[in-house]
Task: structure prediction
Amino acid sequence: MSPNPRTPSKTARLLNLVSFLAGRRYPVTGEEILSKLPSYREGWVQGDSKRKSAQRKFERDKEELLMLGVPLRVDDSRIRAGLGEHAHYRIEDGDLFLPVIRLLEGDEGERSSRQATLPGVGVVTLTADELSVAVDGLSQVVGLPSFPLRSQARSALRKLTFDQPLTQPPEESGPRILHLPGFDPFAVQGVLELATRGVLERRVLHFRYYSIGRDSEGLRSVHPRGLLYQGSRWYVVAWEPASEGERLFRADRIEEAELDETERFTPPEEYSMGHLKDRDAWELGEEDDPQTEVRVHFRWPLSLLARRNGWGEELRDDGERGAERVFRVRSSGPLLRWVLSHAGEVWIVGPEGLAEEFEELRDRVRAVHS
Result:
């Protein structure tokens, strides 16, 4: 069971409790905590009814600290021996630190010379191969834009590779999105639920769809294969028998969706959406949507990073004067926002209409944040 959502006052109360215990060399009783910490003291001194309420509040806070992984040590031996009514509590300084990662070097697994710098801090030993496997796995998770634990994996990767000479954490770009237009995820909930049923039950999905590339609307019948979330939008990945190809349909452009209760389909064996994982948001869309070649200028030295990371294709490199690269785009909005996130170090060169749209977007964002 997850802890209850914490209000600012509750968060402050938990932090005060941790600070109070971590700052003492010896265990303290529950009575001392209740009588000294302001969060509990007011109720504790007002009589039996209020005292019980303060004690229940402390018990809830204690349980939440334990659920959060705070190394709170509880000694209730005196209660069990009938020598008192309150347990003793303590947080050791060393318990508040993450363990030191120590590499084992050589064929015989000799320990490296790296030592823990704080008394009581635990040590985790890894071989170079084990460290490499862990870093590789975390790096793959960090590379999945829609993975729900991506930020936690990035944090773990930083901690795992800190001060380790055998590996370097992958370079990270700045924030990909600075500003997004409003989007209500609940507006597409019904479509996503139907598409999910279609994938699981292998049922044909019928719907009306507006294709922005062709500026047309029509009825579509598809075999849903999965859902994709990228660039703040949900997409239904499906095979369309009429066009004999895999298509991506933006969920917020799907209307009048319904599952065929009689017609089913057989998906290909071992199908995977891995080929879509590395595509950027501006590359997504229907396969027959027209692609636009967009020229983007990068200031130096960001141009070096663009070349190394393979952002677009190089059109011209003028050294310290920067470089111009070409992006093939189906959906311009995500590209404009990505360019904008580089805070003036990148801008749209052409086509002219898109360059003007970028300037307008920049002015709107500046107005919002000024």
